[in-house]
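Write out the 3D structure for:
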Amino acid sequence: MAEWILLPVVPLTLSMSSHISMSVDLQMTMLNDRYDPRFNTWIHLANMNQRRTHFSLNVFSGLLFAVGGRNSEGCLSSVECYVPATNQWQMKAPLEVPRCCHASAVVDGQILVTGGYINNAYSRSVCMYDPSKDSWQDKASLSTPRGWHCAVSLLERVYVMGGSQLGGRAERVDVLPVECYSPYTGQWNYVAPLQTGVSTAGASTLNGKIYLVGGWNEIEKKYKKCIQCYNPDLNEWTEEDELPEATVGVSCCTISMPNTKTRESRASSVSSVPVSI
């Protein structure tokens, strides 16, 4: 049975996070904090150059890439890259079209950006960023338009799951179909659909499986506790143990945690030990 461990409270109320760095979502600020499992503490990082919410954040080659989003001025096309060695954010080549509420994942050394909200509509659009060239290229579109969904990379494939789109009466509806992208064929294929539709859920991989946690269900109009697990070998989704409480707007990552005794020992001496960013 899964075990939940309570960690230190984040300095600010955050969401839309990725990896061990977290970026403020709902407040549309530029603040960032990083969790260090060695000392069980949060460390404040340099602020982003631009306020943003509903953006995507990915890790590649030791760098963080914040893509698109929106703020009080509207949807954003800007892209920022965080360099831990200098604790600074650098501006990169912008998206060709501003978008928010999208999802992205790293595959084949590039960042694949999927769907989202473009020109006031849910989109099927997909584009890929090449960090080595600092350039963007359009890719095959999703079969199903969606926003507020999740994307993860597993076994050299990108899986796009969840989210919502507009129904026949212009109402928001859950997107159950799950799509899989191969960078070698450049095409999308359907895999087993979700059992429970969720938007703004969290997703991560662990031991060769995909875990989709929490989120908002349009049919029930409520937050969910469910943890849905996808096994690519069997091409099936199962429901795991529930979250301690229903949640939405959460993001996930997989990190290695030191054992409790080691973590407590390090935490007790954190004030006297320099921690690099």
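Residues 16 and 251 are 5 Å apart (CA to CA).
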